[in-house]
UniProtKB/TrEMBL annotation:
Keyword Signal: yes
Secretion signal, residue range per the UniProt entry: 1-25
The keyword Signal is assigned to this record: yes
Organism annotation: Eiseniibacteriota bacterium
Pfam families: PorV
Type IX secretion system protein PorV domain span: 31-172
Record InterPro entries: PorV
Protein name: PorV/PorQ family protein
Keywords attached to this entry: Signal
Top-rank taxon, per record: Bacteria
Length: 307
């Protein structure tokens, strides 16, 4: 009975994380550690996660490790995300660029202390805790002035009540400064690794949410009297899901203030997003993403600093 309950709890968590359209991912043989699909950084969220060709700060360790080469020297960022169903999503990363080499390290966690479990009849089945964590290290190398590649190795652990799952995953990415002025291309393949199982064997094996994302970004410096314009569009395909499209834009006013918005097409629970930013010494960013099906909304706050 206890093992059956554990499997049920896992399904409840998957539903809370990604909604009814992908709750089936908790079935044996499907995906686990789906928190890896939650994007990081408030600026990326503001732009609808159209960020694989944009990533130019420490969050590149997640979006596209080759983007570490876009960091001028050193960059650090921290994010807090008030996510759906009272889940707390935390992220911190540091990135370094030296010559033709880029380095990065990051931590991400998703937590909830008191989740009410219910059985298939709707009756209360107890309270349990839930947590996901991942720690990663990244490296990027500049092949030419216009082309860079990078990779990330990530250790992950998920805990549901007193049951645990852990493993290692790999990411690979590339960036290309195209011959068209201001146009950059980027691509990444994330969360590559073998299947994993929980301590309770009845749950079967699970695959990682392998994700392929590629896109283009256009930057126009000095747009609108000293500001800047950034436009981006991505295609994302994750295992077990249909392809989705992400579009985003950011407008900078005098290099200090920024406003932006994004749109996701092909998802059941998300579409538009908005955000604000301020940068003078430190970077402050906020992004708001409404989420449908009574799951709640996402409020992301990020603090960054480059030197």
């Amino acid at each position: 009975m206890k093992k059956t309950l554990k499997a049920l709890l896992l399904g409840c968590v998957a539903f809370a994380l990604v909604g009814p359209s992908t709750a089936e991912a908790a079935d044996p043989g499907r995906t686990v550690l789906t928190f890896l699909k939650i994007g990081v950084g408030a600026r990326a969220a503001m732009m609808g996660d159209a960020y694989v060709a944009v990533a130019d700060d420490a969050t590149a360790s997640y979006w596209n490790p080759a983007g570490l080469l876009k960091i001028e020297s050193n960059d650090v960022v921290g994010m807090h995300n008030e996510w759906i169903q009272d889940l707390r999503h935390e992220y911190a990363a540091v990135g370094v660029h030296r010559g033709r080499h880029g380095f990065g390290a990051s931590f991400v966690g998703l937590y909830s202390d008191d989740i009410q479990a219910r059985d298939d009849t709707g009756q209360e089945a107890g309270i349990f805790g839930y947590s996901d964590i991942a720690v990663s290290g990244s490296y990027a190398f500049e092949l030419t002035e216009d082309l860079g590649v990078g990779g990330t190795i990530r250790y992950m652990r998920q805990s549901i009540d007193d049951e645990n799952l852990s493993g290692v995953a790999f990411d690979f990415g590339g960036t290309w400064q195209t011959p068209v002025e201001g146009v950059e291309a980027g691509a990444s393949m994330r969360h590559l690794g073998g299947s994993m199982s929980y301590d309770f064997t009845d749950a079967g094996s699970f695959d990682l949410p392998t994700t392929l994302q590629f896109g283009l970004a256009y930057r126009k410096i000095g747009f609108g009297g000293g500001g800047g314009l950034l436009l981006a569009g991505d295609i994302l395909v994750a295992s077990g899901d249909d392809a989705s499209f992400r579009f985003g834009g950011e407008y900078k006013i005098r290099e200090q203030f920024s406003v932006g918005a994004g749109y996701k097409a092909g998802l059941d629970n998300e579409d538009i997003s908005f955000g604000l930013g301020y940068e003078k010494g430190v970077r402050l960013n906020y992004a708001f993403t409404p989420i449908s099906n009574d799951l709640g909304d996402s409020h992301r706050f990020a603090l960054g600093y480059a030197w």
